[in-house]
Amino acid sequence: MMKTKWCIVMLIVSMGVVLVCGASEVSTEGKLRPRLSPDEVENQITLDQKANPLYESRLLSPVREWRDGLAEKTGLHLGLDYSALYMHVSDSPGEDKASGGIARFYGYWDLVNRGGPNKGSLNWKIENRHKYSDIAPSALGFESGYAGIIEPPFSDQKARLTNLYWKQYVSEGKGVLVGGFLDTTDFIDVYLLSSPWTGFANFVFSTGSASMDLPNDATLGAAAGAMVNSSLYVQAGIADANSDPRDPFQGFESVMDDSDFFKWVEIGLTPGKDKIYFDNTHVTFWQVDKRANGTDDGWGVNLSWQRWIDDTWLPFIRGGVTDDSGSLLEKSVSAGVGCQPVPMRGVIGLGFNWGRPNEASFEGADDQYTAEVFWRYQLTKELAVTPSVQYIKDPALNTDEDNLWVVGCRLRVAL
Questions:
Q1: What pairs with residue 373 in β-bridges?
Q2: Could you tell me if 112 and 161 are in contact, meaning their C-beta atoms sit under 8 angstroms apart?
Q3: Distance (Å, whole) CA 119 – CA 26
Q4: CA 401 to the chain's CA centroid
Q5: Rounded distance between C-alpha atoms, residue 200 and residue 316, angstroms
Q6: Would the pTM of this model clear 0.70, i.e. be above it?
Q7: Which tens digit of pLDDT belongs to each residue from 128-154?
Q8: How confident is the model at residue 20 (pLDDT cuts 50, 70, 90)?
Q9: How many other β-carbons are positioned within 10 Å of the β-carbon of residue 223?
Q10: Are strands 383-393 and 403-414 parallel, antiparallel or unpaired?
Q11: Concatenated DSSP letters for 178-240?
Q12: DSSP letter at 366?
């Protein structure tokens, strides 16, 4: 009872407040200052603006110029993109192909201290996720007997909220407070290639290495983080474990009535606050309560190491262990490398994973192995294409097959 009351008080008092010192803003000079997640709204808009395409196109220049002028005059920064995906898997006992699309409208509005280090802004991201085929791409993994998810965002949820929060920078931009509906993957266990929009397709190479039982998007939560010294940082948080992005305001009722929470503490090392996005070693401890849908409680530990070398190479090693909960894997180790041959033009990624399916989710399932290579290329300022190939050895839920191949192609058009 005391635990429940403590969690409720903590959540209500700080109501979605996140303090991440070292996760910085876009400076007044327009340079990208590193922050924890490439998917965070401000960072995504800035990365799209700084894209270095193979072909220069003036077709949508008037739209970009209008948008940039609006931002300069009013502080209102707008982003709009559409992503489409096709995937095909070999030797599936069920459906062997899937396709779908996602439309996103996102942005931030600087309403307090615009242009200053302690600015305050309203941030949002609204999506429509839909399938083209009989099943959505996110279901193709299970359909083929793989105990995992390929491209988790490409579902058939239709209209949904991903985040809606107020962000306030403090201490001359050294810290930031965020309150509202959050996407915890913007803050926890992230690295440069974690984004399913621009990086790896397989969830084992994303947040938590498929061994973390994360809450859904649009979750009410609270967290705090700070640089303890020039190289050590700590962050901790709590979020509603029963969130539903299709009905986000139900979160208030969930927090008060169910009191099921996801909690985490992360301790990390970085060469400097300005390099936390690129050079980072961290350990994340997390715990989740038993949820209203009956999913068991559990806990886990995740480790991550990445280094940015010569503005070109990004080797990484990541993994985690889990006890119970509803995670996909109970043990997972991923390693690989990213390469950026031309700055801001594209990324080549290669990753390998060993995973042991969670006994609580897949009783008796054997270990499985996953490899993926992708190449994201920026053709024009607006259009990026990402072909990928995955190899899955010993898919845990398809004992009739020793090997699966998955080929896919992702297109993203961003304004």
A1: 350, 389
A2: no
A3: 11
A4: 31
A5: 13
A6: yes
A7: 999 999 999 999 999 999 999 999 999
A8: very low
A9: 24
A10: antiparallel
A11: EEEEE-GGGTSS--TT--TTTS-SBGGGSGGGG-S-PPPSSEEEEEEEEESSSSEEEEEEEEE
A12: P
Distance between CA atoms of 44 and 104, rounded to whole angstroms?
12
Q: Taking a C-beta distance cutoff of 8 angstroms, is the pair 370, 391 a contact?
A: yes
**Rounded to 5°, angle at Cα 157 from 151 and 159:** 120
Q: Which amino acid is at 222?
A: A
Report angle CA 261, 160, 164 to the nearest 5 degrees. 65
Residue with tokens 């559409």: 82
Buried-state track 177-188, b at ≥16 Cβ within 10 A, e below 16: bbbbbbbbbbbb
Main-chain phi, psi angles of 7, to 5 degrees: -65, -40
- Residue 226, burial from CB neighbour count under 10 angstroms (0-12, 13-18, 19+): middle
pLDDT at residue number 234:
86
**Separation between Cα atoms, residue 161 and residue 245, nearest integer Å:** 5
Q: How far is CA 413 from the centre of its chain?
A: 19
- Torsion sign, CA atoms 238, 242, 243, 248: negative
The rounded distance, in Å, linking the Cα atoms of 270 and 7 is: 30
pLDDT in tens, 172-202: 777 777 788 999 888 899 888 989 999 999 9
Neighbour count for residue 73 (Cβ, 10 Å): 8
